Amino acid sequence: MAITDTRLVHGVIGFAIGDALGLPVKGQTRAQLTEKPIDKMTGYGTFDQPAGNYSDETSLVIASMMGLTQGFDLAAVKSAYQQWYTDSEYAPYQGPVVDIWPSTKNALTDQPLADTQNDPGGLTRVLPLAYFLFKEGHTDLVNDPQALTQLSDFVSLTNPDKDNIIAGVIYAQAIINLLNGQTDLHVALRDSIASAAKYYTQNDATAWQNFARLTNPQFAELPVADYRAASDPVSILEAVIWSALNTDNYKDALLTAVNLGGNTDTLGALVGGLAGLAYGYQSLPHKWCLVLAKYSEIVDLCRQAEASGYFPKYD
Q1: Which of 64, 58, 115, 59 is nearest to 90 (CA)?
Q2: Using CB atoms within 10 A of its CB, is residue 230 exposed (0-12), middle (13-18) or buried (19+)?
């Protein structure tokens, strides 16, 4: 199977590159990045990591993928997370964790999960679950009680709050739309938002209020100043979708997201997962692939996941 054909690689490598692109400038303001924008893969910076290293976002996406090779077994998924947290498995470095969301750290150290709506640690892990659910035949999450329950339980491993769950539904459904034949990323996102809006306005209108701005027909035309450099899943998802809707290729989508500032690794990763899948392997800048840490190992793990029978395979 050629690497250009394996859509799991497209999404996961796309995610990892976006993470690595944003990690060195995490925490920089939009003003700083407007003055000196990111336009290539760099190194060191915020966490003093070499170019191509990625953060907890990618490590946990890989760990999620490998945990799901056992089927929908949350104990196996959490065990894979523990391997990352304690033994640097799936990380691009050895030693202490470089970056971790508070809710994720609490979950992995058996601390109480409180105020989990303040970080996107549930949303950031759902990419491989979307592939898994699609392979299991789940293509319409909000109208599929089993799939919706599985997604909620998966997100709730670290972030058992409605904002992370709804954000995860929207992101995962967009991925599933792309896997299910939709070739236009903009349409995949808008259809996902529309289906979530319909479901939640009927079933949990109060929870949907935080996401209502996504249904604005002029959402993509809103000025960049309207997007907060915040850590909550609603703000993160808005910035990700805005970046994707205002671009039409992988590279521009990532650069637009990262240069918004704030949680640049998170924004780059989430946009990269969507855009990598939507625009395909050949859209990934070759130089960025060469710089990405553990590129070959990530590809090999994707192929192991495909061979498990729990992920779509294209041969």
Answers
A1: 59
A2: middle
Structure tokens at 131: 């592939």
By CB atoms closer than 10 A (0-12, 13-18, 19+), residue 224 is: middle
Q: Provide the residue count of the chain.
A: 315
Is the CB of residue 46 less than 8 Å from the CB of residue 27? yes
Q: How far apart are CA 11 and CA 17, in angstroms?
A: 10
- CATH number, domain 7-307, options 1.10.4080.10, 3.40.1050.10, 3.40.640.10, 1.10.10.10: 1.10.4080.10
Question: Under a CB-based contact definition with an 8 Å cutoff, are residues 170 and 193 in contact?
Answer: yes
Instruction: Output the pTM of the full model.
Output: 0.97
88 vs 97: CA distance, rounded Å: 7
> Residue 96, exposed/middle/buried by CB under 10 A (0-12, 13-18, 19+)?
exposed
> pLDDT tens string for the chain (315 positions)?
566 678 999 999 999 999 999 999 999 999 999 999 999 999 898 999 999 999 999 999 999 999 999 999 999 999 999 999 999 999 998 877 888 999 999 999 999 999 999 999 999 999 999 999 999 999 999 999 999 999 999 999 999 999 999 999 999 999 999 999 999 999 999 999 999 999 999 999 999 999 999 999 999 998 877 777 789 999 999 999 999 999 999 999 999 999 999 999 999 999 999 999 999 999 999 999 999 999 999 999 999 999 999 999 876
Burial track 186-221 (b if 16+ CB lie within 10 A, e otherwise) = bebbbebbebbbebbeeeeeeebebbeebeeeebee
DSSP for 83-103, written as a single string: HHHHH-TTSSSSSS-S---HH
